[in-house]
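Ticket #4471: structure output looks truncated?

Reporter: J.K.
Steps to reproduce: submitted the chain below (329 residues) through the standard prediction queue, then opened the result file.
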Amino acid sequence: MTRRVPPVPSVPSVPSVPQSPISQSPISSPPPPRNTNTPNTSPPAACCLLSAPKEPPMNTQTPYLPNPPRWLCEVTEEPVTVAACLACARERRQPSCPFNVALLKALAAANEPDAAISGLHQTGYPVLRVSSLTGCVRKSWYSLRAERRLETPSQHWARLRGAIFHHALENMGEGHIERRLTAFLYDQEAAAFITGRIDGFSPERNELVDYKSTRRLPGNVRPHHHRQVLLYAWLLARNGFGPPRTIRLIYISMAKVKSFDVPPPTPAELAELETNLLVRVRRILADEPPEPTPEETWECKYCPFSECPAQVAGGGTAAGSRQQTAGNV
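Returned output as attached by the reporter:
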């Protein structure tokens, strides 16, 4: 079934504001205000951008409900709230459902809205996650404009499995802390927040670690994961930490663990990355969808956007929620 893709509000021109120096604040280079008659170079306080929202993000296409359906019932595939799903699981009303209360609670916790991202949405600027800045740029274009698609708990499982791994490692890590970093990126054509959740960073050792739970361990670092950790390194630099001295990418399957050392980017490479990042942001925010740019063969096969010509030509499936790997972004 073809999914309707509503348009994204256009981004007004951004006043020419000198780039602010890298700081220790949660948001580097705060944006100039929007929708003002005269340019104002006084940035808003970072804390107000990260406050918990009182309404859903601006791109939400469905009416706001106090207790909206969170996913589809595993058996009936009808929309269901968390409370109703938990009540059903406690009483085993659907004997064929494999999910018990503990798994469903973990799933609900893993899918809780991120207050920091919701606060960024309230500024009126687009918010692009690191995960949307790797892989096919046309998929990123669709994702920014698509209505939220409900899935069954089984379809959520890859992300839940990753969340369980990440939660355990976060509690046991020595000196590594999980954190969300955000930077504001703009030029005269486009403006957006870039945000990503880093699995582990040690300020003392200046070490960046990213975990990926996967079904099969790769022979080498997957290209989109390599680009992802470089974007994390860029976010660290933009938030005052400087480029990390060491980067480790660790793949975790149910049977084995495999890690790779990724060469940290030089300042020149970070500058080139930012230039290329701006190009990609412009393409994602453009009025018309860009050409498809799948980086790996499985991307089109599992792409959820059936209206994409490349997805149709490749015989893709709407079950795009099935992921090769899972990680926090």
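Triage note (M.O.): checked the attachment and the full token line is present. The chain has ten helices and ten strands.
Status: closed, working as intended.
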